Amino acid sequence: MNNSNIPLTPKECDVSNFPYMPIEIDRLLNSETWILGDDSEKVASMTLWLKSWSQVPAASIPNNDKMLAHLSGMGTKWKKVKDHVLRGWVDGGDGRLYHHVVAEKALEAWIEKLANAISGAHGNAKRWSIEIDTSELEGQLCDAVYRLKSIAPQSKALTKKIAKMVESRSQPVSGGDTDPNSQGIAIESKENVNRIDINKHTQGANQKSEQDDSWKPDSNFLLNVIRESMGAHAESILSMSDYQFHLGNFNAHWENRPDLTENQRTRKFAVWLIGEFKKQSSGNQQGKPRNKSQSINLNVNDDWNNQPKDDQPFHGTVQLPEGMI
């Protein structure tokens, strides 16, 4: 166990709602912790890795032997396996131990969670024409990106659009020989908080690039798919004035499903557009002004004016059924 004095994940990092922890099988099976450990040490090591995933901060465990004996499931055997099980864990200086590999996976999930939250907030703000302050989320995102870059620069998460955007718009806190943050991690402090505000940046090349990289459907295929259920209304749906807005919301909603085929994604977008078109059509019908010639008459007696009036005396013979008198 080493001493880093810097938590590998931020204090608010919570990925407990991610039910699966990514595990690189070859990396695990070829690690010294796994190869050199006996059965009890392997079980305890794996248990602590998994337990740390749902802790807050994620990828951390309490630096307390009684707690570790309980969390690892080793009980009274903890001291026997402790030295081997804690290989790869570092002291964060906050009373907790952090694991580099678990922290890498946790930060990747945390970045995804923050990016989705920011994207959703921006979409809702545009949809409802309201202002939503996302500066705190953006500060946490910037911090997470640079923490991940410091411990796992090879992470694929750093090649995604949101991470590239953060790196291009903000610079990490620079470390030095006398700087306790020598790794250059963007940590929160009263003196220096590394934050970005996407809302304050002008629409430059980065935003244009981000938009160009987003998924766009094949217009002819999309038109044919919509025609299957909407017929002649298909052209009206594709010509909606807020088509691009709906496309942006759709991409943000399905951003984390790269497994979708082009066919599946296009059909889902078609359903999305049809739903939005029906909402607009319903709203337009409800909002149409009533024709002046169709003014509402509140006099209930007027309805009798159109009824046939026949109050003349009757002259004739009426046949009554037998037995009626």
From TrEMBL:
Region of interest (Disordered), residue spans: 189-217, 280-325
Any one Pfam family match given in the protein's UniProt record, by short name: DUF1376
Biased composition (Basic and acidic residues): 189-200
Compositionally biased intervals (Polar residues): 280-307
Top-level taxon of the source organism: Bacteria
Full protein name: DUF1376 domain-containing protein
